[in-house]
Amino acid sequence: MGPFAVKDLLTHGKERLNLSLIGGYSGTGRTINSPSIKIFDMDQASADENFGRGSVVIITHDVLSRCEADPPCIVSLLLPALSASSPPLIVCSQAGTIPPFLIEFSNKESIPLCASGLDVFPLQSRLIGLLREKIENIVIINGVLVEVLGIGVVIIGESGIGKSECGLELVTRGHKLIADDIIEIRKGNEGVLAGLSMELTKFFMEIRGLGIINVKRLFGVAAVSDETTIHIMVEFIRWKRDAEFDRIESEEHYRTVMGVKIPLIRVPVRSGGNMATIVEIVARNEILRKDEYSASRDLKDRIFNRIQKERPHR
Amino acid sequence: MKEMKTFTLKNELGLHARAAAMLVAVSSNFKSKILFERDGKEINGKSILGILTLACPKGSSITISAEGDDAREVMEQLGNLIEGKFGED
What we know:
The complex is a heterodimer. By secondary structure, chain A is of the alpha/beta class. Chain A has 2 domains: 127 residues, Udp-n-acetylmuramoylalanyl-d-glutamate--2,6- Diaminopimelate Ligase, Chain: A, domain 1 (3-Layer(aba) Sandwich), CATH 3.40.1390.20; 162 residues, P-loop containing nucleotide triphosphate hydrolases (Rossmann fold, 3-Layer(aba) Sandwich). Chain A has a 5-stranded mixed beta sheet with strand order 2-7-6-5-4. Chain A has a 5-stranded mixed beta barrel with strand order 8-9-14-11-10. In chain A, a hairpin with a 3-residue loop joins β12 and β13. The longest helix of chain A is centred in the middle third of the chain and has 17 residues. Chain A starts with a strand and ends with a helix. The longest helix of chain B is centred in the C-terminal third of the chain and has 13 residues. By secondary structure, chain B is of the alpha+beta class. Chain B has a single domain, classed as HPr-like (Histidine-containing Protein, Chain: A). Chain B has 3 helices and 4 strands. In chain B, β2 and β3 form a beta hairpin. Chain B has a 4-stranded antiparallel beta sheet with strand order 1-4-2-3, covered by helices on one side. Chains A and B meet through α6, β10 and β12 of A and β3, α2 and β4 of B.
């Protein structure tokens, strides 16, 4: 957790935010301390002296066209407000051409100036998401989070594949639901990932055919938990006849979340297959793996030894 | 095919449960991958709970993107629902 340098934002967010740096190059060492974003509003600029202090500022296409139509605005409103708040970064949304006065200003004040091809709202949303990840170490992912035998398991997969139904089945078997659909993941100091539910929809689930249910009300407090450490991910994949899955051991896959590698197990979903049992086994296997036991290695060793023994002596 | 558009919620109640259910009912009929974006959150457009966590009031903006062969149709239908204030007066 901590401040995030503008140059790092440019590397991490270049593609997603569609950014290109066009001015204020000497200021890219500036740091962003908060994930709040200010959208410059011409009508409030003069009223608010502390306009967006320390936050990234977005200047919309509308503001730029208004400046173009009414140049005195630039000198009397836009530049003084920007100068006073000295933002770590200015981004022009839905950028066509950036007026030279703004580039000049950013160079003079050493405030990095970027153009983004995105519209103001997605730009704002994605900036908040990225800054929250880098400054507060929080990301949000889609999936179901359950705690099975003390192991935090995230179930992911395309919508309608049966993640929630599997989570519900696990709850009926005495395991705990933490979050359905939206999981907030926070990275702790030791590189441990904690998974939580969004406060608003905590312990609610959507089950097709039933609608919305409240798991805590239905099953009691023992069936839910506020938070769990995330140990492993299971991805449900639609079963295809010719898709290849390893029959001896699951291949080693990982999903990296905020720099932390989480083992990912990919399992095909077939009708009739009981996914809750699979997830339980994944959790049990994870417990064994922590004890450094691997069933596939154990079996391979046994077979190897037997073959060695049975080999005809010459 | 990829489509992306920002909508402003004009109906009095904002993105309430019934409205979210209507959006999901439309999204779920299409193959495209649909995402709703707001305030740093990126939510699967086929998930009611997800859309509800966005808690969009009247006047707020939401960006919807769709990726897939039927992206254009789904955007059109979702847009009609939002612009049509979900059938509210």
